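Hi R.,

As promised on Friday, here is the backbone we talked about, encoded as structure tokens. Could you run it through your design pipeline when you get a chance and send me back a sequence?
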């Protein structure tokens, strides 16, 4: 089985279209894994939801922005830019889109992996940025050996080998992660629609369960086109500019 792994689309249809074309066309994946945050920050929430709904084979969990945009989160915890974008998204969502976001689970457990947006300690809100947070999720992973997360927008791998301390590495374009049954892994493939690792290209992964490996890919997309739409929609300058810097 070949899975395409995507996360944090954030209403960026330009990036999503390029990534899905690559996954279905060139990489020929059988199924998509989406780790949440289809909406928030960007200008085309309904269009991104429609693209995701067109996919016949998909495993998808809710992200914090997805839930906030249907009124399921206290938005005072979000930063000022995120709050404004969430309020914008709440207004923009159609009833159909809202129903779809409402239907998303917060965790999915499969034979080969477990998937959540944030962490196993807090499915939608906790960021696994360091070893302490990773350690908590490794403990909660119990019998499984692979956890897929999103939320930080930075591609990163955490590994827990038996009787050894956890370690972490930043993931780059074309990196390959070898999954073994003896060790435990937390993999974040980065963001499709708003990367924050100083590489503005859309980020995603391909998980080949037979080869037992996950490969990271980066692809360029038309950033200026989405920025133009954001300018027209009166989005904050910070949110518009960060797309070009990948921050
Ligand atoms: Zn996000």
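Update: got your reply. Pasting your designed sequence below so it's all in one thread:
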């Amino acid at each position: 089985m070949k899975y395409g792994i995507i996360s944090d689309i954030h209403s960026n249809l330009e990036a999503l279209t390029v990534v899905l074309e690559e996954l279905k066309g060139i990489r020929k994946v059988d199924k998509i894994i989406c780790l949440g945050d289809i909406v928030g920050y960007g200008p085309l929430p309904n269009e991104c939801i429609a693209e995701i709904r067109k996919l016949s084979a998909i495993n998808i969990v809710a992200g914090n922005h997805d839930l906030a945009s249907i009124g399921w989160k206290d938005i005072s915890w979000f930063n000022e830019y995120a709050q404004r974008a969430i309020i914008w998204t709440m207004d923009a969502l159609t009833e159909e889109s809202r129903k779809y976001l409402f239907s998303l689970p917060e965790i999915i457990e499969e034979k080969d992996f477990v998937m959540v947006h944030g962490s196993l300690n807090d499915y939608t809100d906790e960021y696994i940025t360091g070893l302490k947070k990773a350690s908590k999720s490794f403990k909660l992973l119990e019998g499984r050996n692979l956890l897929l997360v999103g939320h930080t927008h930075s591609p990163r791998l955490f590994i827990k080998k038996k009787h050894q301390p956890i370690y972490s590495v930043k993931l780059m374009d074309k990196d390959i992660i070898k999954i073994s049954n003896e060790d435990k892994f937390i993999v974040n493939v980065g963001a499709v629609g708003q990367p924050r690792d100083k590489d503005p290209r859309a980020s995603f992964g391909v998980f080949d369960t037979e080869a037992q490996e996950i490969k990271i890919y980066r692809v360029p997309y038309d950033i200026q086109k989405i920025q133009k739409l954001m300018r027209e929609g009166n989005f904050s300058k910070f949110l518009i500019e960060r797309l070009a810097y990948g921050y």
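One thing I noticed while checking it: Residues 8, 10, 37, 63, 65, 151, 153 surround zinc ion (CB under 6 Å).

Thanks again,
M.
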